[in-house]
Amino acid sequence: MWSRLQHWRSWIPRKAFQTLRTLGQPRIKETHISYQHAGLTVCNEPVPWNAETVRVEILIQRPSADSWRKDDFCLAIPGAAPVVAESLRPEGPGAFRLVFEFPSPPLEAAAKERRSEGGIILELGLWGQGHDLGDMELPMLSSEDFLRGLRLEPVSVLARLGQELVPCRAVVGTQCRGLQACGLLTSPTSLVPLLDLGATIEFLEPHTGRVQDIALSLPRSELAGRHALLSAAPRGWPGPGEEWLVRWIVAGHCLAERSIRSLSWKEFWQSLGLIDARYACVRESGPPALTPYLPAREGLWRVGACFRLASQEPGAVGFCALELRTVFKDPTRPSEIFTQNLLITDGPSSFQSPLLSTEDFEQVAAFDLLSEGVPFASLPGCRPIVQFTTEGGFTEPAAFDWTPVAEQELAHRLEKLEGVPELGMMPGSSTVG
Fold first, then answer.
1. Domain-embedded: residue 134
2. What residues form DSSP beta bridges with 367?
3. DSSP 388-428
4. Do the domain assignments include residue 49?
5. How far is residue 114 CA from its own chain's centroid?
6. Of residues 42, 95, 93, the one with CA closest to residue 68
């Protein structure tokens, strides 16, 4: 009989004996990890190096009816003394929950740490009445890993012009009433560790070397999340011809930088250019539309002029006083003048005149755009209509100013005319010369 038992024991693997010995012991069913810092609690994330308290909750499955106390359990932490359970409370039939609280383990003293894609993993061991009940992983986050995961985009410097707050890289200095630097900070984890690192926005004047450092204080709601707006306004703004360098800095690391330059009014005015001139049309049915050519009369309700301008200076922004003169065919009728202080950027900025009725548009000779009293662009009014006589001739129309818009319309119509197939030719056929 003994020989049979020896043979049976040699056949069973060693792990099977370990399982039999621990069959009546508690088993780990699930774990829950959180940490606290500056009164903020963060759950289900790696524990940062500067966490004040770590809390580990372990749900234990109890197969036997033996009674257990919280003092029977301890948590083995690399580089630190074992921690006895803070509390033990029942969690339904055959289960109870253990709670451990301890200071954040020192990463440099951890003997069993290993690297992972998300940071450092510490192996914790749960012991009960001297028995090893199992291991669990405690993900840790070093300051280097936290800083490496930070991203700041998009970033922008906004200039206050009148009631507008416009992103720019160059601004008319005499029109600027203040600057605002903004950037959206994102992190793969919560931003709570940022409390001990510090975040600032730096405004540097390269010519003088003067620096304005503005420390940022984030609200609780943004610290607990993974996104935060880093924004600050400097004291004053660059004078004409000056340039500032704006930097977003966290723990001494520059995450992003932008420059902004102050333009004189003359520099900005000389950088302005016309993109195009179009007719703004409203018909009896359908939405308003812009067309590069004179609109057909059928169904036309109201017509006006629309000029699109832009600065050729990259990122420039400023106000420009524009004047639109509606010149009529009747020389005795005075021109109608419409003025507007238009905010112009390096993108298309539209300047549109009040819309005229179809009857008034029939009397318009041209729409002239001026800036600082200087002609800037012109858009022809209603074209003269050719009247044919009964003898087959036509009456000579009134004088018509030939403009680039009229030239563009003629080229477009000739292009369409050239695309018409000859008589007797089917589309797709060819000829041999």
1. yes
2. 326, 379
3. E-TTS-EEPPPP----HHHHHHHHHHHHHHHTSPPTT--TT
4. yes
5. 35
6. 95
Q: Buried b / exposed e across 391-427, counting CB within 10 Å, b at 16+?
A: eeeeeeeeeeeeeebbeebeeeeeeeeeeeeeeeeee
Contacts of 416 (CB under 8 A, 6+ apart): none
CA distance 378 to 196: 61
Alpha-helical segments (H) within 116-190: 143-149
Confidence of residue 383 (pLDDT cuts 50, 70, 90): low
CB 5 within 8 A of CB 31: no
pLDDT digits (tens, 9 = 90+) for 299-324: 888 999 999 999 999 999 999 999 99
Compute how many other C-beta atoms are within 10 angstroms of the C-beta atom of residue 206: 11
Query: pLDDT of 114-142, one tens digit each?
Result: 555 556 888 888 988 888 888 888 999 99
Tell me the two tokens of residue 261: 């330059």
Round to whole Å and give the CA distance between 266 and 189.
Answer: 49
- Intra-chain end-to-end CA distance of the chain, in Å: 113
Please tell me the distance from the alpha carbon of residue 131 to that of residue 76, in angstroms, as a whole number. 12
Average pLDDT, stretch 242-252?
Answer: 94
What the block records as the tokens of 322 is 């524009």
Distance in angstroms (rounded) separating the CA atoms of residues 178 and 159: 6
Domain check: are 158 and 249 in the same one? Answer: yes
Give yes or no: residues 347 and 385 share one domain: yes
Asked if residue 213 and residue 130 are part of one domain, the reply reads no
Q: Give the tokens for residue 268.
A: 């900005």
What is the pTM for the complete model shown? 0.73
Please give the tally of structural domains in the chain: 3
**What are 272's strand-pairing partners?**
311
Supply the range of the domain harboring residue 324: 272-413
DSSP 8-state symbol, 34: E
Residues 309 and 387 in one domain: yes
Residue 36, classified by CB atoms within 10 Å of its CB into exposed (0-12), middle (13-18) or buried (19+), is middle
